[in-house]
Amino acid sequence: MRWVPGTLFGKTAVALMVAFLYFAFFAFAAVVHYVQVPVARQAAEDLATFLLLTGRAWSSLPPADREHYAAEVLRGHDVAVSDASVPLLERPAYRPFPALVEAAVQARTRAPTALRMSTAQDGRRWYWLEMNEPAGGVRVGFPENRTGTHVPTALISVLAASAGLVLVTAMTLASRISRPLERLSAAVESLGKGLEPERLPEQGPTELVTLIRQFNRMTLQVRELLANRTTLLAGISHDLRTPLARLRVAIEMLPEEVDSDLVQGMTRDLEEMNRLIGVALELAHDLAAGKREVVDLNEVVQAVVEGARRVGGAVRWTPGPPCRQNVNVTALRRVLDNLMGNALRYGRGLMVTVELECGTDGVVVRVLDRGPGIPEEEREAVFRPFHRLERSRSTDTGGSGLGLAIARQLSEANGWRLTLGSRDGGGTVAELVLPRLALPSGLPEEAGS
Length: 449
What we know:
This protein is of the alpha+beta class. The protein is 54% helix and 14% strand.
């Protein structure tokens, strides 16, 4: 249902609002039916009796005393009495209490009684009842404000009080539950990105405290698991180099009559294995290194571009204004090197363009090539380890399939976002977004950064 909010606060507020409105409606209906209506009927009975007595007393008095009597009744009881010679307004709109008074008068006189309305000189509206007495027609009236009932006002007041109570209650209840959940959600998101969230305070309802305690315990276990994985990866990669060195020595000691093509193939395989081990060692080192420092990102990008140009890559890059950022420089260099390597490898020898945008909310680095591009359905798959669009697994037609996987892991570990897209005119755009982090105290930001 579209009108039902999706947030915890909204759902709580709607549930409480419905409950309070039902309660207010039935409470109001019960009060009206069992209290207000009986009281109004009794008051109408009493007023009808008083009006009849007043009209009969007025008609029984001599004409000379009627004016004095009418003035006393008006002053003492706010009831007017006169003859029925002056015409009045038409019958007024239905009002509950005047209708009850009219019905009570008709029940006592057993004769039709017409309810009319007029406006007095003081601005008040009056209800009049005409009665036929032996001495002539008598008109008895009472002011509108004598009824004292304001059903719409009462209903609006009850609804307004219920709405206010709902908002206060919803804010109190939802905040006690939603705030710990919001902190937990942010911590889960950080953990999913490979970051290490701080230990959450174990506060709130018992169920939430249990959930947060389990999350804190899981965070510690994940942290230890990642540390062990990194250590294991580095250890295995390092230990593999010893048997590889023995194999290399053994190959060099082979007799000369062994097929030279076979020896060269084995040597290439050993070199490829050694390169992959080096990649694994660098990845383990980069994932473990999380130290940040304040640098001008133009210098970092310039170093990557110069490295690409030294190996014959055609790269277009124009440094911009100073862009100081608090980043893990080692990880950033590794990510940009991998993106640049991919762009040069698959860019068909055409010019690769590098862009750096430094804004107030964050920094965007783009590496654009003119290669064949990546199909949209494969743009996430290429971030998986050893996944290649070229299926032959030959190093002559592509890399090892680890470059983008390492770049994505390093990006997520540092809170960056790495995505791939299509370039206008053909090619691929690799975009790395770095949220702006506060610089350490005492280090002012450069103008225009």
